[in-house]
Every structure is written in C-alpha cells, then in structure tokens.
Amino acid sequence: MSSTITTPLPANIDAGTLIATLHTHDTMIKALCPGLISYEFVSGDKNSEATYSVTDKKSMGQTTYKLTLTNVNDGIDSLVNAKPPVGTLTISAKWRVVKGELVEEVEIDGNFMMKKMAKGNVEKTHPEQHARLLEMAKA
C-alpha cells in the first residue's frame, strides 16, 4: 500500500537548507514523532545511516519501534519496523527535495488491518510532519 505526500517549499527555504535539515537525524526524529517520549541510538553512523529505538505516544498508547534513517544526496530514507500487538508493520519512506517541493513516497507493509490503519495515519499526519520540517529548516 503506498501514498505520496507533496509540499511546496516556501520561497525562504532553498533545497540545500532543507536537505541539510533532513540529514540531521535528531531533527528528523523530532519532526516524525510528535508524541516522542524518548529515543536512543542503536547502531550505524549518525551522518549517513543509523538505527534508533524510538518510544512514541500514539492514540492506541505508547509504542516502541526501530527507525532507520539513511541520508541520500537529495533527501533521506526512513524505515520504521514496528511490532504492534496485532502483527508487524513496516513503513518505508523516501523523502526527496525535487523541483521546489518536498516529496515523500511511502510504502506500507503489514497485515490488511495494519496497512489500512497506517495508511490513514500517514495521510493525516505526514502533511503536519512536512510543515514541522519546513519550520525547523527556517530556524
């Protein structure tokens, strides 16, 4: 199951600044996890590819999952591996800065119920994540 979220860049944020923001893993984690309780570095290199253990508050309660962030030339890849009580869930996203836009392509894998719930959550919350990232890029 896939979704694409696109947000135009404001005139005061250039592509290079936004890419540098995406490459800052601490910033990405805070933008992706509005209910962030805690996170810790697990393995890798924080300047290229790293895995974190993230504890986040969701509508269904507190959840802990693995998040891998991989810096690429024009953005970042994110991979969530979660094991909620009703099965496993994998959400992979490619965040790219392309032609004056932040484009996020999301792939969701899990059982039917998890995919449907995750897709609804992605379509609802990821535009807000884009807005937070753009605000963080201005700072």
Automatic annotation (TrEMBL):
Pfam families: DUF7053
Protein name: DUF7053 domain-containing protein
Domain DUF7053 as annotated: residue spans: 4-138
Species lineage: Eukaryota, Fungi, Dikarya, Ascomycota, Pezizomycotina
